[in-house]
Amino acid sequence: MKTEQLKQIFKATALALCLSASMPTFADAQPKDEIVAVVDNSVILRSDLDQSIAEITHQLQSKKQTVPPIEYLQQQALEQLITRQAQLEQVKRYNVKADEKSLNEAVLKVAKDSGSASLEAFQQKLDAIAPNTYSSLRARIAEDIALQRLRQQLVTSRIQISDQDVKNFLSSPQGQAALGNQVHVLHVRISGGENAVKIAEDVRKELATSNDAKAISTKFSTKDTKVDAADMGFRSLSDIPDELAARVSPLQVGQTTELISVRDGVHVLKLIERKASDQKAIVPQFQTRHILIQPSEVVSPENAKQMIDSLYTRLQKGEDFAVIASTFSNDPGSAANGGSLGWVSPGVMVPEFEAKMKETPKGEISKPFQSQFGWHILQVTDTRQQDMTQEVQERMARQLLGERQFDTELDSWLREIRNNAFVDIKDPALQRKSK
Protein backbone atom coordinates (compact mmCIF):
# COMPACT_ATOMS: atom_id res chain seq x y z
CA MET A 1 0.00 0.00 0.00
CA LYS A 2 1.16 3.51 -0.67
CA THR A 3 2.89 5.28 2.21
CA GLU A 4 0.46 8.19 2.13
CA GLN A 5 -2.52 5.84 2.46
CA LEU A 6 -0.92 4.16 5.46
CA LYS A 7 -0.43 7.58 7.04
CA GLN A 8 -4.13 8.25 6.63
CA ILE A 9 -4.92 4.96 8.34
CA PHE A 10 -2.75 5.87 11.30
CA LYS A 11 -4.35 9.32 11.49
CA ALA A 12 -7.78 7.73 11.54
CA THR A 13 -6.68 5.37 14.27
CA ALA A 14 -5.33 8.27 16.30
CA LEU A 15 -8.65 10.03 15.83
CA ALA A 16 -10.49 7.01 17.17
CA LEU A 17 -8.14 7.06 20.13
CA CYS A 18 -8.93 10.70 20.89
CA LEU A 19 -12.62 9.96 20.78
CA SER A 20 -12.18 6.99 23.08
CA ALA A 21 -11.24 9.25 25.97
CA SER A 22 -14.91 9.96 26.54
CA MET A 23 -16.17 6.58 25.37
CA PRO A 24 -15.59 3.61 27.68
CA THR A 25 -16.78 1.27 24.95
CA PHE A 26 -13.45 1.69 23.15
CA ALA A 27 -11.92 -0.61 25.73
CA ASP A 28 -13.57 -3.87 26.70
CA ALA A 29 -17.21 -4.16 25.71
CA GLN A 30 -19.56 -3.31 28.54
CA PRO A 31 -22.09 -5.91 29.80
CA LYS A 32 -24.93 -3.90 28.23
CA ASP A 33 -23.33 -4.29 24.78
CA GLU A 34 -25.50 -6.05 22.24
CA ILE A 35 -24.78 -7.68 18.92
CA VAL A 36 -26.10 -5.56 16.06
CA ALA A 37 -24.79 -7.70 13.20
CA VAL A 38 -23.09 -11.00 12.45
CA VAL A 39 -20.51 -11.05 9.64
CA ASP A 40 -19.36 -14.55 8.72
CA ASN A 41 -17.82 -15.86 11.96
CA SER A 42 -17.59 -12.50 13.77
CA VAL A 43 -19.93 -10.00 15.36
CA ILE A 44 -20.36 -6.22 15.37
CA LEU A 45 -21.34 -4.79 18.76
CA ARG A 46 -23.42 -1.75 19.54
CA SER A 47 -20.31 -0.14 21.03
CA ASP A 48 -18.49 -0.69 17.72
CA LEU A 49 -21.29 1.08 15.88
CA ASP A 50 -21.39 3.98 18.37
CA GLN A 51 -17.63 4.40 18.13
CA SER A 52 -17.75 4.43 14.33
CA ILE A 53 -20.56 7.01 14.29
CA ALA A 54 -18.60 9.24 16.67
CA GLU A 55 -15.50 8.94 14.51
CA ILE A 56 -17.35 9.83 11.28
CA THR A 57 -19.03 12.77 13.02
CA HIS A 58 -15.72 14.08 14.32
CA GLN A 59 -14.13 13.80 10.87
CA LEU A 60 -16.97 15.75 9.23
CA GLN A 61 -16.89 18.43 11.91
CA SER A 62 -13.10 18.82 11.64
CA LYS A 63 -13.56 19.47 7.91
CA LYS A 64 -16.43 21.90 8.63
CA GLN A 65 -18.84 19.69 6.70
CA THR A 66 -22.50 19.20 7.50
CA VAL A 67 -23.22 16.21 9.72
CA PRO A 68 -26.10 14.21 8.21
CA PRO A 69 -29.05 12.84 10.23
CA ILE A 70 -28.30 10.05 12.69
CA GLU A 71 -30.24 7.52 10.62
CA TYR A 72 -27.92 8.10 7.67
CA LEU A 73 -24.83 8.01 9.91
CA GLN A 74 -25.94 4.67 11.35
CA GLN A 75 -26.36 3.24 7.87
CA GLN A 76 -22.97 4.43 6.68
CA ALA A 77 -21.17 3.41 9.85
CA LEU A 78 -22.70 -0.07 9.87
CA GLU A 79 -21.86 -0.61 6.20
CA GLN A 80 -18.23 0.41 6.82
CA LEU A 81 -17.99 -1.96 9.77
CA ILE A 82 -19.49 -4.83 7.78
CA THR A 83 -17.03 -4.28 4.93
CA ARG A 84 -14.13 -4.04 7.38
CA GLN A 85 -15.17 -7.21 9.22
CA ALA A 86 -15.55 -9.08 5.92
CA GLN A 87 -11.97 -8.14 5.11
CA LEU A 88 -10.77 -9.21 8.54
CA GLU A 89 -12.30 -12.61 7.88
CA GLN A 90 -10.08 -12.79 4.80
CA VAL A 91 -7.11 -11.75 6.93
CA LYS A 92 -7.73 -14.77 9.13
CA ARG A 93 -8.25 -17.02 6.11
CA TYR A 94 -4.91 -16.06 4.56
CA ASN A 95 -3.16 -15.78 7.95
CA VAL A 96 -1.91 -12.26 7.27
CA LYS A 97 -0.33 -10.64 10.34
CA ALA A 98 1.48 -7.48 11.30
CA ASP A 99 5.04 -8.23 12.34
CA GLU A 100 6.17 -6.83 15.68
CA LYS A 101 8.65 -4.38 14.17
CA SER A 102 6.10 -2.77 11.82
CA LEU A 103 3.50 -2.68 14.56
CA ASN A 104 5.81 -0.99 17.04
CA GLU A 105 6.85 1.58 14.43
CA ALA A 106 3.22 2.36 13.60
CA VAL A 107 2.16 2.70 17.23
CA LEU A 108 5.23 4.82 18.00
CA LYS A 109 4.30 7.17 15.16
CA VAL A 110 0.84 7.65 16.65
CA ALA A 111 2.46 8.11 20.07
CA LYS A 112 4.82 10.83 18.82
CA ASP A 113 1.98 12.56 16.96
CA SER A 114 0.14 12.75 20.26
CA GLY A 115 3.16 14.09 22.16
CA SER A 116 4.56 10.90 23.73
CA ALA A 117 8.24 10.13 23.21
CA SER A 118 8.08 6.38 23.85
CA LEU A 119 5.68 3.47 23.76
CA GLU A 120 5.92 3.11 27.52
CA ALA A 121 4.93 6.73 28.10
CA PHE A 122 2.15 6.40 25.54
CA GLN A 123 0.77 3.30 27.24
CA GLN A 124 0.76 4.98 30.66
CA LYS A 125 -0.95 8.04 29.20
CA LEU A 126 -3.71 6.02 27.52
CA ASP A 127 -4.37 3.58 30.31
CA ALA A 128 -4.67 6.49 32.73
CA ILE A 129 -7.62 7.67 30.62
CA ALA A 130 -9.34 4.27 30.51
CA PRO A 131 -8.09 0.74 31.29
CA ASN A 132 -6.99 -1.34 28.26
CA THR A 133 -7.10 1.65 25.92
CA TYR A 134 -3.49 1.10 24.79
CA SER A 135 -3.98 -2.60 24.06
CA SER A 136 -7.21 -1.82 22.17
CA LEU A 137 -5.45 0.80 20.07
CA ARG A 138 -2.53 -1.54 19.41
CA ALA A 139 -4.91 -4.27 18.28
CA ARG A 140 -6.68 -1.82 15.98
CA ILE A 141 -3.43 -0.72 14.33
CA ALA A 142 -2.35 -4.35 13.95
CA GLU A 143 -5.63 -4.97 12.11
CA ASP A 144 -5.04 -1.92 9.91
CA ILE A 145 -1.58 -3.14 8.90
CA ALA A 146 -2.84 -6.66 8.21
CA LEU A 147 -5.70 -5.27 6.12
CA GLN A 148 -3.35 -3.18 4.02
CA ARG A 149 -1.04 -6.13 3.43
CA LEU A 150 -4.00 -8.29 2.45
CA ARG A 151 -5.25 -5.65 0.01
CA GLN A 152 -1.79 -5.16 -1.43
CA GLN A 153 -1.38 -8.88 -2.05
CA LEU A 154 -4.83 -9.71 -3.39
CA VAL A 155 -5.61 -6.52 -5.28
CA THR A 156 -2.18 -6.32 -6.89
CA SER A 157 -2.59 -9.91 -8.11
CA ARG A 158 -5.73 -8.81 -9.99
CA ILE A 159 -3.91 -6.09 -11.93
CA GLN A 160 -2.78 -7.27 -15.34
CA ILE A 161 -0.30 -5.07 -17.25
CA SER A 162 0.91 -6.42 -20.57
CA ASP A 163 4.17 -5.62 -22.34
CA GLN A 164 2.10 -3.74 -24.92
CA ASP A 165 0.52 -1.64 -22.14
CA VAL A 166 4.02 -0.68 -21.00
CA LYS A 167 5.12 0.13 -24.55
CA ASN A 168 2.02 2.26 -25.19
CA PHE A 169 2.49 4.18 -21.97
CA LEU A 170 6.16 4.93 -22.59
CA SER A 171 5.31 6.30 -26.03
CA SER A 172 2.42 8.42 -24.71
CA PRO A 173 2.80 12.09 -23.69
CA GLN A 174 2.48 11.06 -20.02
CA GLY A 175 5.14 8.40 -20.45
CA GLN A 176 7.48 10.66 -22.36
CA ALA A 177 7.05 13.33 -19.70
CA ALA A 178 7.73 10.79 -16.94
CA LEU A 179 10.94 9.81 -18.70
CA GLY A 180 12.02 13.45 -18.87
CA ASN A 181 12.14 13.44 -22.68
CA GLN A 182 12.36 16.82 -24.41
CA VAL A 183 11.07 18.29 -27.65
CA HIS A 184 12.23 21.30 -29.69
CA VAL A 185 9.03 22.97 -30.90
CA LEU A 186 8.13 25.92 -33.15
CA HIS A 187 4.82 27.44 -32.01
CA VAL A 188 2.68 29.72 -34.20
CA ARG A 189 -0.53 31.48 -33.12
CA ILE A 190 -2.78 33.18 -35.67
CA SER A 191 -5.37 35.56 -34.20
CA GLY A 192 -7.87 38.18 -35.34
CA GLY A 193 -9.61 38.73 -38.65
CA GLU A 194 -12.02 36.62 -40.69
CA ASN A 195 -9.16 35.02 -42.63
CA ALA A 196 -7.36 33.60 -39.56
CA VAL A 197 -8.10 29.98 -40.48
CA LYS A 198 -7.09 30.50 -44.14
CA ILE A 199 -3.84 32.19 -43.09
CA ALA A 200 -3.22 29.40 -40.57
CA GLU A 201 -3.46 26.85 -43.36
CA ASP A 202 -0.89 28.83 -45.37
CA VAL A 203 1.37 29.02 -42.30
CA ARG A 204 1.18 25.27 -41.86
CA LYS A 205 2.27 24.75 -45.47
CA GLU A 206 5.15 27.18 -44.96
CA LEU A 207 6.27 25.26 -41.87
CA ALA A 208 6.82 22.19 -44.04
CA THR A 209 10.00 23.84 -45.39
CA SER A 210 10.87 26.62 -42.92
CA ASN A 211 11.84 26.91 -39.27
CA ASP A 212 12.34 30.67 -39.39
CA ALA A 213 9.88 32.00 -36.80
CA LYS A 214 10.62 35.67 -37.46
CA ALA A 215 10.26 35.32 -41.22
CA ILE A 216 6.95 33.49 -40.87
CA SER A 217 5.55 36.18 -38.57
CA THR A 218 6.57 38.93 -40.98
CA LYS A 219 5.33 37.15 -44.09
CA PHE A 220 1.84 36.22 -42.91
CA SER A 221 0.83 39.02 -40.52
CA THR A 222 -1.70 41.51 -41.99
CA LYS A 223 -3.50 44.59 -40.77
CA ASP A 224 -6.35 42.43 -39.43
CA THR A 225 -4.57 39.20 -38.62
CA LYS A 226 -1.63 38.79 -36.26
CA VAL A 227 0.80 35.90 -36.64
CA ASP A 228 3.02 35.24 -33.62
CA ALA A 229 5.69 32.59 -34.25
CA ALA A 230 8.19 31.58 -31.60
CA ASP A 231 10.93 29.01 -31.37
CA MET A 232 10.27 27.42 -27.96
CA GLY A 233 13.62 25.62 -27.83
CA PHE A 234 13.95 22.32 -26.02
CA ARG A 235 11.32 21.74 -23.38
CA SER A 236 10.29 18.76 -21.32
CA LEU A 237 6.92 17.41 -22.34
CA SER A 238 5.90 17.81 -18.70
CA ASP A 239 6.36 21.59 -19.09
CA ILE A 240 3.96 21.78 -22.04
CA PRO A 241 0.18 21.97 -21.46
CA ASP A 242 -1.31 18.47 -21.61
CA GLU A 243 -3.50 19.23 -24.63
CA LEU A 244 -0.56 20.50 -26.68
CA ALA A 245 1.78 17.77 -25.42
CA ALA A 246 -0.72 15.17 -26.61
CA ARG A 247 -0.62 16.75 -30.10
CA VAL A 248 3.17 17.02 -30.25
CA SER A 249 4.12 13.64 -28.78
CA PRO A 250 3.09 11.46 -31.78
CA LEU A 251 4.74 13.75 -34.37
CA GLN A 252 7.80 12.72 -36.32
CA VAL A 253 10.61 15.29 -36.63
CA GLY A 254 9.62 17.87 -39.25
CA GLN A 255 5.89 17.26 -38.94
CA THR A 256 3.28 19.80 -37.82
CA THR A 257 0.09 19.42 -35.86
CA GLU A 258 -3.33 19.93 -37.35
CA LEU A 259 -4.78 23.40 -36.83
CA ILE A 260 -5.82 23.86 -33.19
CA SER A 261 -8.67 26.35 -32.85
CA VAL A 262 -9.12 27.79 -29.36
CA ARG A 263 -10.50 30.99 -27.89
CA ASP A 264 -7.38 33.10 -28.42
CA GLY A 265 -6.84 32.04 -32.05
CA VAL A 266 -5.60 29.19 -34.22
CA HIS A 267 -2.44 27.37 -33.17
CA VAL A 268 -0.06 25.14 -35.09
CA LEU A 269 3.10 23.50 -33.78
CA LYS A 270 6.05 21.93 -35.55
CA LEU A 271 8.39 19.35 -34.06
CA ILE A 272 11.92 20.40 -35.00
CA GLU A 273 13.88 17.93 -32.89
CA ARG A 274 13.39 15.37 -30.17
CA LYS A 275 15.84 14.06 -27.58
CA ALA A 276 15.55 11.51 -24.85
CA SER A 277 16.57 12.17 -21.30
CA ASP A 278 20.31 11.77 -20.87
CA GLN A 279 19.83 10.24 -17.44
CA LYS A 280 21.07 6.66 -17.44
CA ALA A 281 20.44 4.00 -14.84
CA ILE A 282 23.87 2.44 -14.37
CA VAL A 283 23.76 -0.13 -11.58
CA PRO A 284 26.34 -2.49 -10.12
CA GLN A 285 25.64 -6.17 -10.67
CA PHE A 286 27.13 -9.18 -8.94
CA GLN A 287 27.57 -12.60 -10.49
CA THR A 288 26.71 -14.66 -7.45
CA ARG A 289 26.29 -18.24 -6.35
CA HIS A 290 25.12 -19.53 -2.99
CA ILE A 291 24.33 -22.50 -0.80
CA LEU A 292 21.14 -22.51 1.29
CA ILE A 293 20.38 -24.76 4.27
CA GLN A 294 16.82 -24.41 5.55
CA PRO A 295 15.43 -25.61 8.86
CA SER A 296 12.52 -27.99 8.38
CA GLU A 297 10.45 -30.60 10.20
CA VAL A 298 13.42 -32.94 10.08
CA VAL A 299 16.21 -30.35 10.32
CA SER A 300 16.15 -28.25 13.49
CA PRO A 301 17.50 -24.67 13.49
CA GLU A 302 20.50 -25.91 15.45
CA ASN A 303 21.20 -28.72 12.96
CA ALA A 304 20.85 -26.28 10.06
CA LYS A 305 23.52 -24.07 11.63
CA GLN A 306 25.79 -27.05 12.20
CA MET A 307 25.35 -28.17 8.57
CA ILE A 308 26.19 -24.76 7.10
CA ASP A 309 29.26 -24.47 9.35
CA SER A 310 30.42 -27.91 8.21
CA LEU A 311 29.98 -26.98 4.54
CA TYR A 312 31.88 -23.73 5.11
CA THR A 313 34.78 -25.67 6.59
CA ARG A 314 34.86 -27.97 3.57
CA LEU A 315 34.87 -24.97 1.21
CA GLN A 316 37.71 -23.41 3.17
CA LYS A 317 39.70 -26.61 2.60
CA GLY A 318 39.27 -26.21 -1.15
CA GLU A 319 36.29 -28.39 -2.07
CA ASP A 320 34.38 -27.33 -5.19
CA PHE A 321 31.64 -24.78 -4.48
CA ALA A 322 29.45 -25.92 -7.39
CA VAL A 323 29.59 -29.57 -6.32
CA ILE A 324 28.66 -28.80 -2.71
CA ALA A 325 25.85 -26.46 -3.83
CA SER A 326 24.45 -29.08 -6.22
CA THR A 327 24.59 -31.74 -3.51
CA PHE A 328 23.44 -29.93 -0.37
CA SER A 329 21.70 -26.62 -1.19
CA ASN A 330 17.97 -26.42 -0.42
CA ASP A 331 17.43 -23.88 -3.20
CA PRO A 332 16.47 -26.19 -6.08
CA GLY A 333 16.52 -23.46 -8.73
CA SER A 334 20.14 -22.50 -8.18
CA ALA A 335 21.38 -25.89 -6.92
CA ALA A 336 20.83 -27.37 -10.37
CA ASN A 337 23.31 -24.78 -11.67
CA GLY A 338 25.97 -25.23 -9.03
CA GLY A 339 24.37 -22.57 -6.82
CA SER A 340 24.49 -19.89 -9.54
CA LEU A 341 22.04 -17.00 -9.28
CA GLY A 342 23.38 -15.31 -12.40
CA TRP A 343 23.84 -11.54 -12.43
CA VAL A 344 22.09 -10.04 -9.40
CA SER A 345 21.04 -6.38 -9.25
CA PRO A 346 20.53 -4.38 -6.03
CA GLY A 347 17.03 -4.59 -4.58
CA VAL A 348 16.36 -8.12 -5.78
CA MET A 349 17.52 -10.14 -2.78
CA VAL A 350 16.48 -9.89 0.86
CA PRO A 351 18.45 -7.24 2.82
CA GLU A 352 20.70 -9.69 4.67
CA PHE A 353 21.74 -11.40 1.43
CA GLU A 354 22.29 -8.15 -0.44
CA ALA A 355 24.40 -6.67 2.35
CA LYS A 356 26.64 -9.73 2.49
CA MET A 357 26.89 -9.86 -1.30
CA LYS A 358 28.06 -6.23 -1.49
CA GLU A 359 30.69 -6.62 1.21
CA THR A 360 32.18 -9.91 -0.02
CA PRO A 361 35.25 -9.34 -2.25
CA LYS A 362 35.16 -10.93 -5.69
CA GLY A 363 36.34 -14.51 -5.62
CA GLU A 364 36.05 -14.93 -1.83
CA ILE A 365 33.55 -17.04 0.05
CA SER A 366 31.40 -15.40 2.73
CA LYS A 367 31.06 -16.73 6.22
CA PRO A 368 27.67 -18.37 6.94
CA PHE A 369 24.90 -15.85 7.51
CA GLN A 370 21.18 -16.08 8.20
CA SER A 371 18.12 -14.67 6.42
CA GLN A 372 14.41 -15.38 6.68
CA PHE A 373 14.95 -18.34 4.33
CA GLY A 374 17.66 -20.07 6.36
CA TRP A 375 21.46 -20.16 6.43
CA HIS A 376 23.52 -19.08 3.41
CA ILE A 377 27.06 -19.12 2.10
CA LEU A 378 27.69 -17.02 -1.00
CA GLN A 379 30.47 -16.28 -3.42
CA VAL A 380 30.69 -13.31 -5.80
CA THR A 381 32.50 -14.57 -8.89
CA ASP A 382 32.42 -11.32 -10.88
CA THR A 383 31.08 -7.74 -10.84
CA ARG A 384 30.10 -5.22 -13.50
CA GLN A 385 28.39 -1.89 -14.11
CA GLN A 386 25.28 -2.47 -16.20
CA ASP A 387 23.08 -0.02 -18.10
CA MET A 388 19.61 -0.84 -16.81
CA THR A 389 17.90 2.25 -18.23
CA GLN A 390 15.35 0.34 -20.28
CA GLU A 391 14.52 -2.04 -17.45
CA VAL A 392 14.15 0.85 -14.99
CA GLN A 393 11.88 2.72 -17.40
CA GLU A 394 9.71 -0.34 -17.93
CA ARG A 395 9.52 -0.96 -14.19
CA MET A 396 8.53 2.67 -13.61
CA ALA A 397 5.82 2.35 -16.27
CA ARG A 398 4.43 -0.81 -14.68
CA GLN A 399 4.42 0.87 -11.29
CA LEU A 400 2.59 3.96 -12.56
CA LEU A 401 0.08 1.88 -14.51
CA GLY A 402 -0.42 -0.35 -11.49
CA GLU A 403 -1.07 2.63 -9.24
CA ARG A 404 -3.63 3.92 -11.72
CA GLN A 405 -5.48 0.61 -11.67
CA PHE A 406 -5.11 -0.10 -7.97
CA ASP A 407 -7.97 2.07 -6.68
CA THR A 408 -10.38 0.74 -9.31
CA GLU A 409 -9.47 -2.86 -8.55
CA LEU A 410 -9.65 -2.17 -4.83
CA ASP A 411 -13.20 -0.85 -5.13
CA SER A 412 -14.18 -3.87 -7.19
CA TRP A 413 -12.57 -6.27 -4.71
CA LEU A 414 -14.25 -4.59 -1.73
CA ARG A 415 -17.66 -4.92 -3.40
CA GLU A 416 -17.00 -8.61 -4.04
CA ILE A 417 -15.89 -9.17 -0.45
CA ARG A 418 -19.00 -7.39 0.85
CA ASN A 419 -21.41 -9.20 -1.47
CA ASN A 420 -19.94 -12.63 -0.72
CA ALA A 421 -19.96 -12.20 3.06
CA PHE A 422 -22.68 -13.74 5.20
CA VAL A 423 -24.35 -10.81 6.98
CA ASP A 424 -27.15 -11.05 9.53
CA ILE A 425 -28.43 -7.69 10.85
CA LYS A 426 -29.88 -8.29 14.31
CA ASP A 427 -31.37 -4.83 14.91
CA PRO A 428 -34.61 -4.56 12.85
CA ALA A 429 -34.25 -0.77 12.56
CA LEU A 430 -30.76 -1.13 11.15
CA GLN A 431 -31.85 -3.99 8.92
CA ARG A 432 -34.33 -1.76 7.15
CA LYS A 433 -31.61 0.80 6.45
CA SER A 434 -28.76 -1.54 5.56
CA LYS A 435 -28.00 -2.32 1.94
Automatic annotation (TrEMBL):
Record key words, sorted: Chaperone, Isomerase, Periplasm, Repeat, Rotamase, Signal
Signal peptide boundaries: 1-27
Pfam family for this entry, one: SurA_N
Enzyme Commission number(s) of this protein: 5.2.1.8
Catalytic activities: [protein]-peptidylproline (omega=180) = [protein]-peptidylproline (omega=0)
Gene3D superfamilies referenced in this protein's UniProt entry, alphabetically: 3.10.50.40, Porin chaperone SurA, peptide-binding domain
One CC-aspect GO term: outer membrane-bounded periplasmic space
Transmembrane segments: none
GO molecular function: peptide binding; peptidyl-prolyl cis-trans isomerase activity; unfolded protein binding
Subcellular location: Periplasm
Record GO biological process: Gram-negative-bacterium-type cell outer membrane assembly; protein folding; protein stabilization
InterPro entries: OMP_Chaperone_SurA (IPR050280), PPIase_dom_sf (IPR046357), PPIase_PpiC (IPR000297), PPIase_SurA (IPR023034), SurA_N (IPR015391), Trigger_fact/SurA_dom_sf (IPR027304)
Coiled coil ranges: none
Highest taxon above the source species: Bacteria
PpiC domain ranges (all copies): 180-273, 283-382
PANTHER family reported for this sequence: CHAPERONE SURA
Domain writeup: The PPIase activity resides only in the second parvulin domain. The N-terminal region and the C-terminal tail are necessary and sufficient for the chaperone activity of SurA. The PPIase activity is dispensable for SurA to function as a chaperone. The N-terminal region and the C-terminal tail are also required for porin recognition.
Protein role: Chaperone involved in the correct folding and assembly of outer membrane proteins. Recognizes specific patterns of aromatic residues and the orientation of their side chains, which are found more frequently in integral outer membrane proteins. May act in both early periplasmic and late outer membrane-associated steps of protein maturation.
Protein name: Chaperone SurA
Source organism (scientific name): Acinetobacter gandensis
Taxonomic lineage of the native organism: Bacteria, Pseudomonadati, Pseudomonadota, Gammaproteobacteria, Moraxellales
